[in-house]
Amino acid sequence: MTGALADGLFWVMAAGAVITGWRVFRTDSMVRAAYWLMASFVAVAVILILLAAEFLGLVLVLMMAGEMTIMAVFMVMFMMNPAGLNPMTMVHQHRTAIAAGVIAFVGLAGVGAFARFPSAPPPAATHVTADVGHELLGGSMFIFETAGVTLLATMIGSLAVASRRGRFGPADEGSVEPGPPAAAPAAVPESEHAGHAGMERPDGMVP
Amino acid sequence: MTLQTLLALAAALFGIGVYGALSQQSIVMIMMGLELMLNGAILAAVSFWARTAGGAPQGQLLAIVVMTVMAVEAAAGFALLVNVYRIRRADITEKLKTLRG
């Protein structure tokens, strides 16, 4: 792709990524918010492809398409207003959040603008995707395997957390550890309780 | 597409994500803010690879690690959301004040 065309596409996608990312928190419909976020990811993926990281760009699109669809389904499941039929601003500490966002942007962009980085673009003859594949299954296989094991542990942990059947009974009721039943105060009749006020219980506790 | 503009774009995405994660009440919207922050992180990592690494493929592995973090964050977040909604009927953070000091 020629330089001018790539530059123009970059600026369109950069503006698109920021605007769609901003729209995520400004739309009334939460399902639309999920797809605005998807649009932001697609714009970033196009920029990654322009930077010659084709593999990462396409993986980002594939991964986020699935994740945002799941997110939209969760929105419909859990949210009171998934379709955006009512205007909605569900925010708290709005000014603090805006200030924190602006400070994060200025700080990080300032580092990017004023720090001195080496300039070493990849040589023109680099086979990027093939190199990444050889690296993933070669010298950096340990990183790849670590990511895989992390995802496996996450799957097991997520299922354990989300399961209705808890270890000590149904998860809806909260888990209670098995053991000797706690002394039930309700078992003592009120009249008897009043007559022996101050007397110690068998377990040593003052009632 | 200089490194400075790429990093400024990544910082903008990160800043919007910080705003969303701090300001939204809905738990899923907070997760969207986190995803947007990680989106900026991926862009910054690949920008550094494309402009300063001289074509070394190891630079892209950081982006793959960040993608793993995104998947872990989404899975753990949705699992916690399901559990919290089942026990407390809470879908926004304002309903979870048990541990508030």
What does this entry show, briefly?
Chain A has 207 residues and is an all-alpha fold. Chain A is built from seven helices and two strands; from the N terminus they run ααααααββα. In chain A, helix 1 runs antiparallel to helix 2 and helix 2 runs antiparallel to helix 3.
Structure write-up:
The complex is a heterodimer of chains A (207) and B (101). Chain A is mostly helical and 207 residues long. Chain A is built from 7 helices and 2 strands, in the order ααααααββα. Chain A has helices at 3-24, 30-50, 54-78, 94-114, 128-136, 141-162, 190-195; strands at residues 165-166, 169-170. Chain A has a two-stranded antiparallel ribbon. In chain A, α2 (30-50) runs antiparallel to α3. Chain B starts with a helix and ends in a 13-residue tail after the last helix. The longest helix of chain B has 31 residues, at 58-88. Chain B contains 3 helices and no strands. Chain B is mainly α and 101 residues long. Chain B is elongated. Chain B has helices at 3-23, 27-52, 58-88. The mean pLDDT of chain B is 89. Classes of the chains: A mainly alpha (207), B mainly alpha (101). Chains A and B meet through α1, α2, α3, α4 and α5 of A and α1, α2 and α3 of B.
Strand content of chain B: under 5%
**Average predicted local confidence, pLDDT of chain B:** 89
Low-confidence stretches of chain A: 192-202
Which runs of chain B of at least 5 residues are low in confidence (pLDDT < 50)?
A: none
Which oligomerization state do the chains in this entry correspond to? heterodimer
Sheet-strand content of chain A, in percent, reads: under 5%
Structural class by sheet pairing and helices of chain B? mainly alpha
Task: Characterize the largest beta sheet of chain B: strand count, sense, and whether it forms a barrel.
Answer: none
Q: Give average pLDDT of chain A, whole number.
A: 81
Largest sheet descriptor of chain A: 2 strands, antiparallel
Distance between the termini of chain A: 82 Å
In the sheet with the most strands of chain A, the strands line up as 1-2
Total of DSSP H or I helical runs spanning 4+ residues of chain A: 7
What's the number of extended β-strand segments of chain A?
2
